Amino acid sequence: MTQAESRVLCPALRNRIMSADEAAALIRKGDNIGMSGFTGAGYPKAIPGALARRIHQANSEGDRFKVGIWTGASTAPELDGALASVAGVEMRLPYQSDPVCRQRINAGEMEYIDIHLSHVAQFVWFGFLGHLDVAVVEVTGITEDGRLIPSTSIGNNKTWLDEADKIILEVNSAQDMNLLGMHDIYYGTQRPPHRKPIPLVAPGDRIGEPTFRVNPDKIVAIVETHAGDRNTQFSAPDENSRRIAGHILDFLQHEVKKGRLPKDLLPLQSGVGNIANAVLAGLEDGPFENLTAYTEVLQDGMLQLIKSGKLAFASATAVSLSTDALKEFRENLAFYRERILLRPQEISNHPEVIRRLGIIAMNGMIEADIYGNVNSTHVMGSQIMNGIGGSGDFARNAYLSMFMTPSTAKGGTISCIVPMVPHVDHTEHDVQVLVTEQGLADLRGLSPKQRAETIIERCAHPDFKPALRDYYRRALKGSPGQHTPHLLDEAFSWHLRALAGRGM
Amino acid sequence: MTQAESRVLCPALRNRIMSADEAAALIRKGDNIGMSGFTGAGYPKAIPGALARRIHQANSEGDRFKVGIWTGASTAPELDGALASVAGVEMRLPYQSDPVCRQRINAGEMEYIDIHLSHVAQFVWFGFLGHLDVAVVEVTGITEDGRLIPSTSIGNNKTWLDEADKIILEVNSAQDMNLLGMHDIYYGTQRPPHRKPIPLVAPGDRIGEPTFRVNPDKIVAIVETHAGDRNTQFSAPDENSRRIAGHILDFLQHEVKKGRLPKDLLPLQSGVGNIANAVLAGLEDGPFENLTAYTEVLQDGMLQLIKSGKLAFASATAVSLSTDALKEFRENLAFYRERILLRPQEISNHPEVIRRLGIIAMNGMIEADIYGNVNSTHVMGSQIMNGIGGSGDFARNAYLSMFMTPSTAKGGTISCIVPMVPHVDHTEHDVQVLVTEQGLADLRGLSPKQRAETIIERCAHPDFKPALRDYYRRALKGSPGQHTPHLLDEAFSWHLRALAGRGM
Lengths: 504, 504
Ligand SMILES: CC(C)(COP(=O)(O)OP(=O)(O)OC[C@H]1O[C@@H](n2cnc3c(N)ncnc32)[C@H](O)[C@@H]1OP(=O)(O)O)[C@@H](O)C(=O)NCCC(=O)NCCS
Ligand SMILES: CC(C)(COP(=O)(O)OP(=O)(O)OC[C@H]1O[C@@H](n2cnc3c(N)ncnc32)[C@H](O)[C@@H]1OP(=O)(O)O)[C@@H](O)C(=O)NCCC(=O)NCCS
Known about the structure:
The first copy, chain A, is an alpha/beta fold. The first copy, chain A, has 17 helices and 25 strands. In chain A, the strands form 7 sheets. In chain A, strands 1, 2, 3, 4, 5, 6, 7 and 8 form an 8-stranded mixed beta sheet that branches. A 5-stranded mixed beta sheet of chain A has the order 9-15-20-24-25. In chain A, strands 10-12-14 form a 3-stranded parallel beta sheet. In chain A, strand 1, helix 2 and strand 2 form a beta-alpha-beta unit. In chain A, helix 2 (47-60) packs parallel to helix 3. The radius of gyration of chain A is 23 Å and the shape is globular. The interface between A and B is large, with 86 and 86 residues. The structure holds coenzyme A (2 copies). One coenzyme A (COA) binds next to strand 15 and helix 14 of chain A. Chains A, B: Residues 333-471 form the Acetyl-CoA hydrolase/transferase C-terminal domain. Chains A, B: It comes from Rubrivivax benzoatilyticus. Chains A, B: GO terms for molecular function: hydrolase activity. Chains A, B: Pfam families: AcetylCoA_hyd_C, AcetylCoA_hydro.
């Protein structure tokens, strides 16, 4: 790249430009590395691969080389996949969704901590996770006065830049310079006892700065790249997703009619995936206008809602789009920049802000039990899928917390409503509404037994209803306590049958 | 009581004074009643009993009479005991600790919802729990201009007074008029989307008013009483409690030395009970000065710390003292009024404020599993003990969240560290430190497997360590996933043995 084309506009920093291999060589065995990246957006494209090659080399020479990898959330094969493939990760946090990574973790070859996303930055500030040695952060450009223009995600980048000893930047010229102005980096956070209220009262409030501050002395390397983000493709919503979306839309209309929701609703948070996208597609045709979103990731469905004018404003920490949606986004960046703000994840997921705004939270789950406890992370109680992510930040502090899943998995052989979940991520206290394609269970104001009856009747698949009713009825007789009746000797029999390959 | 002695100073309200029986007669079958009371402080003393008599009468005539009882938290035999004894409660929320109540719930004769205490008020404002018909609230007095002087707890009283159709007041002349000025009733709350930051940045900040506002037209009855609160007696800390306290104090000193806590710590939250009291007693002799507390209930231990000058300020929602401590408190009320504020529980337990202040949270538990998931509420997974109370508000949002218990229960036959808890109130994500008399497990930055090794070695009782190690080692081999290894066919075998009367 010639100097004229380069986006490293700060003269004093130009001498730190080098290759990815040279930059990766500055990382030491055992370092904890804070990398950018959130749901496949804004992750470093070149250094993780270079580091993986270095690790592979060292390992093949018998020199055990591992690092700690901290990110915003999930990344992409070039990062998690590359490093996990060479067994280069000692400890991974706070969220991942990579197949190779997952396989390593579940094989017991890699340590992983999934953490509430709103806890990560502050745990690092507090010194609870150990020392952060290096930051590896993708940016869109470096301004003449040395400030950093963020790329398609913010995640924990502010924290990595502030806390790491050394900083390595990837300046990605495939990211659009017109992103400048779409970010809001809040520099008002403090450690207790010096904390002040976060002055944010609506999703569109600007409380920070459009660029990252950085101490130039800490920048040890700059790598110039030109590579796109991982682009998630969405399938058209399937029948189950459409039915789940339908139940949610009916329910929201009912709540407006009852006066429990304003007619333009409240800010929406939506998990990732096909069901979430179907709900957003449903809103497209629904009666609600002037909607807002306060969420983690802006995906295709929300972009479409902004385009159509249904969604007036969206706050997130990442933009993660399909190839087509990305084209639309870039061609109309000036339009979207007026309607989207990206924030650090300690703000996008902040309990204070979520509670204040009164979010309608909609998240996916693996399974729920008859009392409404939700498992979002551990298949059969021991195998990690992705991680809790921000679902707990939203569920606990939402105005309304909904969890959704098809009523069965694995071709109908597994029920997603079970007697007892073998891993709890969200307790019954944080689950107001459960939705499957079968129906919606409104659990507000219900005791555990009333919840059980509602969940079984509304949400379970007809194939599994009789067995659930049977378990519950027998628990009503045989349980030592009748507050939350359970038969501990068979509470996991469904999972044990499934593990034995016999379905539930 | 003569008019000269009466504390109903507002002339327009004097004609509403009547007997408890007359007042109870204004309550209808099926009403939802919001009663005052938090941890045995400030509950109505006369009307619950009168209501219980009325219900008993109706029931004995074959007329099924039940009501819904909503409170701040636990009350006393005169309220929960009296109403539960006559089977008068259809639905109880959000927290109780009464033996008769508990027995009814666990026998399946009474519905109960335990709710995060910070959720209760807003769920009522939002209309999520149904209609509130009557408020029955104890106050210390009624001022000439018709404002209400709160008594020894605030709890949800502001919400009950605001939301109920009818208000019945108990004016208790056994409460000290000098309490006036110790309360801070915040009237700035709103429903979303109109919420603003709560302007509280230190435990001693005053953000509200010393008395309750009330619409006089809603007051249908005033009953004059003269009766003390339930007075909890504390036994001197036993050996286990002292050892738990010792581990916590060592840990706090270590954290100060490492720079992870300021030398005057951060605001303390402490659950109720003997262990909590032992920790506070330990602070009395410890090196920390100028402490503060931001907690739910102020008990003997904290009063002592204030008296000795170690604790500069305490914010709570209730004062619940033993007879001796109450004497000390009343004799020096002017002194304590400068150092104590009582707030509505939506503020004492507010996630926004707890997170901002950076609380050190210390709560009791029934049991924890080897991965750090905590059961605070359900003995053997199905029998309710008390309820989650505010423990989740504090644990999730604390700077440091600790849970403590003796390592065994029931004469050493039951281990409080188990392979898997049969009910989860606090997930591993919200538990940074576990403490038993055996030791303290610092779980920060540890993956599930590392947590298991630490918890077993540090916290389990020697009688149960070998069996826990054995379970964990076999899970490391036989678990389908190695992220959080478990053997689902024996995860509850410990509880099943205990249920069979064979101990764990
Ligand atoms: C729970 C979660 C994994 C569901 O994701 P999704 O894409 O809607 O789910 P899918 O239906 O595609 O299921 C994912 C996989 O789990 C499997 N699965 C789903 N339910 C299952 C169950 N009850 N038992 C066993 N496996 C199950 C599916 O078969 C699928 O497996 P496959 O990839 O081998 O086909 C996802 O929402 C998640 O990671 N949540 C936690 C974090 C979060 O909520 N983040 C967003 C907001 S902050
Ligand atoms: C969990 C909790 C019940 C512990 O209370 P405590 O007074 O410290 O506990 P104790 O050791 O006295 O135990 C209470 C009872 O549970 C029993 N128990 C304790 N651990 C047990 C276990 N692992 N298995 C079975 N029973 C157990 C005890 O034997 C005792 O029973 P008993 O009354 O029949 O003797 C209490 O802290 C609580 O209710 N917590 C939830 C709410 C909360 O945290 N509120 C405060 C802050 S907001």
